[in-house]
Design a protein that fits this description.
Keywords: Disulfide bond, Glycoprotein, Immunoglobulin domain, Membrane, Repeat, Signal, Transmembrane, Transmembrane helix
Strand content: 35-45%
InterPro entries: CD80_C2-set, Cell_adhesion_signaling, FN3_dom, FN3_sf, Ig-like_dom, Ig-like_dom_sf, Ig-like_fold, Ig/MHC_CS
Distance between the termini: 50 Å
Membrane topology: Single-pass type I membrane protein
Number of strands: 97
GO molecular function: cell adhesion molecule binding
Helix content: under 10%
Subcellular location: Membrane
Largest sheet: 8 strands, mixed
Length: 1329
């Protein structure tokens, strides 16, 4: 019974132990959505983790590596490994990241595997938002109240986008809409189509309807929308007339402005004016929402009673809308006329009547005869059909014997218009008697010709008579009307005739008629008219022309006076005539005729021969032409020298110009008697084919080069021509000397030859960048170039480029290296002056020399030549044309191998030597030749040459500060072996000081003593890029802050700084006083704890104390500050977080996979003894907490400005602000880092091979790399001679009591590596105790 109870208890205990050890999800992955291009994090946190963790995507395992290779380096696991955080982070999410993800934890020991799923959805915004069937201008015409369907398509969204409609930027809540979602062309994307149906009204005109995509991946900045503007068509309002009111009276001559206005409508109304139903003005204009037509005119009598109508309408009005007014106009009569006899005899009584034209109102008539008013006139008024009245009046008058002429006047007056509107007519009644014989004037010489078309002005005068004589003109029996005039007692008639060829040699007669003389008085003159021919006619005989016959060309003109001059022309040149003659023609003129004969050739086919008739009376010559048609066999142009240029591998075609009559020609092509195929019958192997008279070359080869024959045949015969195909190809450098060696001071001759087509003297050329080409003589001919370098110097050594370029393809380049002989010169590079290796290692000494010709090496030591053996190997190599290198490799270094070695370099011109020093590994030498390569407004590019690396890999650190500032800043160079670095984040237009140092795992070099200065550029530098200018503008704008604000903030900050300094000084003084008191009271005391080291980790750089921390404790008390990252100082792939507790680790026997060694701490191998240990522990606890808080704050403040990449750097300290004087750059290493003597290392036991793991625990830098120890979190068992040693606290700030003698050393420390550890967290008020 007792045994069963004991077994049950054991089983229960084991079950409880297993259950407690079971791993489980403390935080499971959750379904997550992320916008495309953003970062996605799937969280996974495991409590009591035992097994390995990996993520699975859609069933595919991503692996246990937290960097998760592949996927464009976008996948990684993040979080604190020690806390069980294995969150999957995906950068720049794409649609390919969609899917189901699973966080898996493998089994281990009693823990079973566990897994948890989550889905990642990548939100993809739509690619476009489009309105279908919308014109390019974004405007749609629609009639009022007519149904309109607007269709919006949103494409390529995931998930499908929602459509939101807006009208005038307000969301539409009404209207009929249909939405549909369909799969898009892209996988897992969707298109959304929405149809909005509306019936626009007039007030919707100009309204903008907008379709906007609503999607979780769209922000206000990236919103996508499309808009359309409605143009609603609706009728305008009725028109309105402005400018005249019906019934208003106006006068003739008054300017009237009638305005017709039509408001509204889309499109705006067309406004038209009508007067008495006749359209008078259509020139309307629009402004805003109205149309208006302004009709301006001067009122006249025809406007009286006229109706002016305005019509307005657009395409929405079937019939235009109208409005009209009738106008009343006052006007005077436009004439007054007296009717009655114009001549009389003495004693006759004359009956006279005076009548007016239409007027409004009526006109009043009065008479005056020979200056005396007549009172007994009879008057009457008649209504006019045009709306006014006509006035008439009658009188009688007696002709007396003493009167020669009787003057009668009639006056018409409208009093309403004033006397300014009085109109008068006067009539003269003559008393008759006969004139003298007429005389003709105008033609002085009847033999002088008058040009046809000119004006002939004849005057005929008759003196005396009463009334004066009536003069008439006659041509034969035909009367010609002249212009009759009277001047005093002279009657005349002017006859204007246009000279016509029909009037040539015709008679013109003037007759004077008078009522008092029954006889005929007359005079006549003969006309002579000069006129040109009206036509010219060209003819050719025979009708069919062939080469070899004579063509007769005849030209005949129409009748002309004088005779026309006839000539034949071709291509602007006058041709010699065979004959020229004249014959009589019409209208007493002459006909001219000219003959030209020409020998017929094929070139005359289609030639134009022009016949020209010229006359002195013509302003322009007249022409006729004949087009010769010559029948001939095919003829080619040009007849020789036809070449087709084509690039090798290219295509070309050329159509050979061929003329023939008849034009129907049959063509054939051949080469060397072999016919070519036509383009239509081309076979795959054919590269040259033809189509009629056009030759085609495809994928031209050099075999296609040659002469081809084109043969053409028509009804007149057969003819052929040769065509040369010239295949051009890129040049190829066929001959060049790879190396030309000459003695110094002699001339070097370089030759280069190339083949190709075409080739010219400019095809081949020599060049070399940065070389003074004025020192060389260059000669060239087709495809060949020669260059002579005069007085060759050592600086001329190098490659010259032979460049061939004939325009086909790119340029072809070949190198010819010039080597100038000189005796060896040894390299003074630090790596070629020193070497380092520790005992037992292999040392490599590298010696380099420059010279020509071939250089050989000899190694000696203490005068004895070194040769290869089992331990020594010598390898000579040629680095380049003039650089030679030899390496001396010594394996199994012994102490006696250290020392000086001579390297001797020889060639035919002499020898040289250098001494190389082999020593043990050491800290590196400072870099040399630090210079500034370039500066911008915010960065400086530095470069340097490495110093001796001490036999180990070295890294570099740059120290810099502003000239006007005391604060030092540091930047570690990445990659660590780089020799140039771009330092960014600098201030604009500021001068900086720079120095550089190097370090390896054994220590640091001094900073360079030559301080380099550089100033960043100002806002606008002529070499700045466009982006730099833009950033400078932003910086400039930010600098324009109010001076008052800047001064105020500066004063406030200064006051706070002073207050902090006072408080800090008081606290430091009190602490120092307290420490002194405690040190005095506890001197010689020791702790009674067991041999377990309490390891503290208040550093922000890793979770536990590292060996590097311990190393830094013994090496120095001053360090520099990192930039928020300790990646440079440990190889752990996990970035540790600040430790929040102290771990007291009990010793546990380590498993076999961990190393077990004796550890020698400090520079020599053991930790220095620490006095006043108990007091020091209390002080350091508080200092550690303060130091940790200060470091964390500083790291957060400076961000990622400095990139630390080395694995051998030093952790930062609180001394972040260092002295800035130039002297600081030159402090000797010993002044800042007091060294410790290096004792002989003590090793207990032979350790097994150490696995290359790095989990964030102890790591040490030792002079002997073989004794570097890696310590996982565990216990340090420190034995002593007497069996007991007090616990040692290892602070993280690297401070030790260096006042005691450095010769007192502790025994070796034994370090154990447990697989697991029992951890007790002791945490009080957030800091370590």
């Amino acid at each position: 019974m007792d045994c069963r109870f004991v077994g049950f208890f054991i089983l229960l205990s084991y079950t409880k132990f297993v259950f407690c050890q079971q791993q489980y999800f403390q935080e499971r992955p959750q379904n997550t959505s992320v916008k495309e291009g953003e970062r996605a994090v799937l969280r996974c946190k495991i409590a009591n983790q035992q097994g390995r963790v990996q993520w699975v995507k859609n069933g595919f395992a991503l692996g246990h590596d937290r960097t998760i290779p592949g996927h464009g380096n976008r996948y990684s696991m993040i979080g604190e490994v020690s806390a069980g955080e294995h969150h999957l982070q995906i950068e720049n999410a794409t649609s390919s990241d969609d899917g189901e993800y699973q966080c898996q934890v493998g089994p281990k020991g009693p823990s079973k595997p566990i897994r948890s799923d989550a889905t990642l959805s990548v939100l993809i915004p739509p690619t476009s938002v489009d309105l279908l069937d919308v014109p390019r201008n974004g405007k749609v015409d629609i009639k009022e109240n007519e149904e309109l369907v607007i269709t919006c398509v949103i494409r390529g969204a995931k998930p499908a986008a929602e459509v939101v409609w807006y009208k005038r930027n307000k969301k539409i809540e009404i209207g009929v809409r249909e939405d549909e979602t369909t799969p898009a062309d892209q996988t897992n994307r969707f298109d959304t189509r929405s149809k909005l149906t509306i019936r626009p009204q007039a007030d919707d005109n100009g309204a903008e309807y907008t379709c906007e995509a609503k999607h979780p991946a769209i922000t206000l900045v990236t919103s996508k929308k499309a808009s359309v503007q409605l143009s609603v068509l609706y009728p305008p309002g009725p028109p309105e007339i402005i400018g005249y009111t019906e019934g208003e009276t106006i006068r003739t001559g008054q300017e009237i402005h009638l305005i017709c206005v039509a408001r509204g409508g889309n499109p705006l109304a067309q406004v038209i004016w009508y007067q008495n139903n006749i359209r008078v003005d259509t020139s309307y204009r629009t402004s805003g929402r109205e149309s208006r037509n302004e009709y301006t005119f001067v009122a006249n009598s025809t406007d009286n009673g006229a109706k002016f109508r305005c019509e307005a309408g657009n395409l929405m009005t079937p019939t235009p809308m109208k409005t009209e007014v009738a106008m009343t106009v006052f006007f005077a009569p436009d004439f007054v006329k007296i009717t009655g006899p114009t001549e009389a005899k003495i004693g006759d009584t004359l009956a006279l009547e005076c009548s007016t034209g239409n007027s409004n109102p009526e006109a009043r008539i009065s008479w005056v005869v020979d200056g005396r008013p007549v009172k007994d006139a009879t008057s009457r008024v008649i209504q006019s059909a045009h709306g006014g009245t006509v006035s008439r009046s009658n009188i009688t008058a007696l002709v007396k014997s003493n009167e020669r002429n009787l003057t009668i006047a009639c006056y018409a007056v409208i009093h309403e218009l004033g006397f300014s509107q009085t109109i008068v007519d006067t009539k003269i009644v003559s008393v008759i008697h006969p004139p003298q014989k007429p005389v003709i004037y105008g033609i002085s010489d009847s033999n002088t010709g008058i040009r046809e078309g000119n004006l002939i002005r004849l005057s005929c005068m008759a003196v005396g008579g009463n009334p004066l004589a009536q003069i008439k003109w006659f041509q034969g029996k035909k009367e010609i009307k002249g212009e009759y005039a009277i001047s005093g007692n002279v009657a005349s008639s002017r006859l204007d005739l246009m000279a016509k060829r029909e009037d040539n040699e015709k008679q013109i007669r003037c007759e004077a008629h008078h009522p008092a003389d029954d006889g005929l008085l007359s005079e006549s003159v003969k006309l002579k008219i000069d006129f040109p021919p009206t036509r010219v006619s060209a003819k050719v005989r025979p009708e069919k022309l062939r080469p070899g016959v004579t063509a007769i060309l005849s030209c005949e003109t129409g009748s002309a006076s004088p005779a026309a001059s006839v000539s034949w022309w071709r291509d602007g040149l006058v041709l010699p005539l065979k004959s020229n003659s004249t014959i009589p023609g019409q209208h007493a003129g002459l006909i001219s005729k000219a003959i030209y004969e020409v020998e017929v050739t094929p070139d005359l086919d289609g030639s134009v021969f022009m016949c020209q008739a010229a006359s002195v009376v013509m302003t322009q010559n007249i022409h006729d032409a004949v087009n010769l048609e010559v029948l001939y066999k095919p003829t080619y142009y040009p007849s020789t020298g036809i070449v087709i240029d084509v690039v090798e591998g290219g295509n070309a075609s050329k159509k050979i110009e061929c003329k023939a009559n008849p034009s129907k020609v049959t063509y054939s092509w051949s080469r060397d008697g072999i016919s070519l195929r036509t383009l239509e019958n081309k076979k795959e192997k054919d590269t040259v084919v033809f189509r009629e008279n056009e030759l085609f070359i495809f994928d031209a080869t050099r075999d296609d080069d040659g002469v081809y024959k084109l043969e053409g045949t028509n009804a007149e015969g057969t003819h052929s021509v040769d065509v040369r195909v010239n295949v051009q190809y890129a040049p190829f450098i066929s001959s060049i000397q790879p190396v030309v060696t000459v003695g110094e001071g002699r001339d070097a001759f370089l030759e280069c030859q190339a083949t190709g087509n075409p080739l010219s003297s400019s095809t081949v050329a020599w060049r070399r960048e940065g070389f003074d080409m004025t020192r060389v003589d260059i000669a060239a001919d087709a495809g060949r170039a020669y260059m002579t370098i005069k007085n060759a110097k050592r600086e001329d050594i190098g490659a010259f480029e032979c460049v061939a370029n004939n325009g086909i393809g790119g340029e072809v380049v070949a190198l010819s290296n010039l080597v100038v002989k000189y005796r060896p010169v040894m390299s003074d590079d630090p790596q070629h002056q020193k070497a380092a290796a520790n005992e037992g290692e292999t040392a490599t000494l590298t010696c380099r020399a420059y010279g020509a010709p071939n250089v050989t090496f000899t190694w000696t030591r203490d005068g004895a030549t070194i040769t290869s053996n089992d331990r020594i190997s010598i390898d000579d190599t040629q680095v380049d044309l003039i650089t030679w290198e030899t390496t001396l490799q010594i394996s199994g270094i012994r102490s006696r191998d250290h020392g000086s070695y001579d390297c001797i370099a020889r060639n035919e011109l002499g020898f040289n030597r250098t001494v190389l020093v082999l020593s043990g590994t050491s800290r590196p030498d400072p870099p040399v030749s630090l210079v500034v390569l370039n500066t911008t407004h915010e960065s400086v590019v530095l470069t340097w040459k490495p110093g001796f690396d001490g036999g180990l890999q070295q890294s570099y650190r740059i120290r810099y500060r502003q000239v006007a500032s005391e604060a030092m800043k540091y930047a570690d160079v990445y990659p660590s072996n780089a020799t140039d670095y771009a330092l960014s984040g600098l201030k604009l237009g500021t001068e900086y000081l720079f120095s550089i140092m190097s370090w390896n795992e054994l220590g640091e070099s001094n900073y360079t003593t030559d301080i380099v200065r550089a100033r960043t550029s100002n806002l606008f530098d002529e070499n700045m890029t466009e982006r730099e200018r833009m950033m400078a503008e932003i910086l400039k704008d930010r600098a324009d802050v109010s001076k008052i604000v800047i001064v105020g903030v500066s004063i406030a900050v200064s006051l706070l700084l002073i207050l902090n300094l006072v408080i800090a000084f008081v606290c430091c003084f009190r602490r120092k006083k307290k420490l002194l008191e405690e040190a005095a009271s506890s001197d010689g005391c020791s702790s009674s704890k067991s041999g377990t080291i309490e390891m503290y980790a208040p550093s922000s750089y890793n979770g536990t104390v590292t060996g590097e921390t311990l190393s830094s404790i013994s090496e120095k008390s001053e360090t520099y500050s990192h930039n928020g990252s300790h990646e440079d100082y440990q190889n752990d792939v996990h970035h540790g977080k600040p430790a929040l507790s102290t771990y007291l680790v009990d010793p546990i026997e380590p498993p076999k996979e961990y190393n077990h060694r004796n550890l020698n701490l400090g520079t020599g191998g053991t930790l220095p003894r620490i006095n006043k240990l108990s007091n020091y522990i209390d002080q350091e606890n508080e200092d550690n907490y303060i130091d940790t808080m200060r470091r964390n704050a500083y790291n957060q403040s400076i961000g990622d400005n400095v990139n630390y990449t080395t694995s051998t750097g030093r952790p930062p300290s609180r001394n972040q602000i260092m002295p800035s004087s130039d002297a600081y750059f030159n402090i000797a290493m010993g002044d800042r880092y007091p060294p410790y003597p290096t004792p002989s290392p003590s090793i207990s036991g032979v350790p097994p091979p150490m696995p290359n793991i790095s989990t964030g625990s102890l790591r040490f830098n030792s002079l002997d790399s073989d004794r570097n120890v890696y310590t996982p979190m565990g216990s340090l068992n420190i034995p002593s001679k007497n069996g007991w040693i007090p616990p040692i606290t290892v602070p993280s700030n690297g401070l030790y009591d260096h006042e005691r003698s450095p010769t007192m050393l502790e025994p070796p420390i034994t370090v154990q590596y447990p697989a697991t550890a029992t951890v007790r967290n002791i945490e009080t008020e957030g800091h370590l105790v």
